[in-house]
Request: fold
Amino acid sequence: MKNIVLFGDSLTYGYGVFKKDSIAALLQEKFKKLAVINSGVNGDTTREALKRLDYDVLSFSPVAVTVLFGSNDCAPSEGCYRTIVEFKSNLNAIIDRIYKKNIGTKVILITPPPVDETVFMPWTTNSRIFNYSEAIREICREKGCILCDFNVYMTQESGGDIKSFLQEDGCHLSESGYMAFFRCLEPLIDNIINTAGNSEG
Reply:
């Protein structure tokens, strides 16, 4: 069975929702012939991600890796802020090490979703998330990664009213938010699997 690793922070982990509603569970239900490994850790930034990359990602020799960071990196609070320069450096290092381990692994970079700035909880703003999302798009072009532009997708799908896609804290995804995440990500993974299957045939 082939492995796909979901690498990220609490948005990947599934903070605040039942396990069955997490992105890992939704993908596993769809792709039953894959082993979907959830390597999301609450509160992580790209700095912590680099430290656990070998154990939580490379050790599984995945055919594909999704990478979703930025919400914590861009938040100027609780000691998690990473400058955009460090953020880009860390992301580039993550990608380089994945490709070095197995050049055939597909890397999907995901832009972090928008937040609801009308509630107290979000430690960041959409303008800050925009800048880090732009960095992700730039790295995708430079590295030849696959882009999952969840930030744009969620904004468009919600019609600008993102409250139902988020939990009460205004930053973590609700069940509806995870369904939107699934709809955005699933076609990309499906294409990777179908392409790999055709090449093997």
In short: The mean pLDDT is 94.
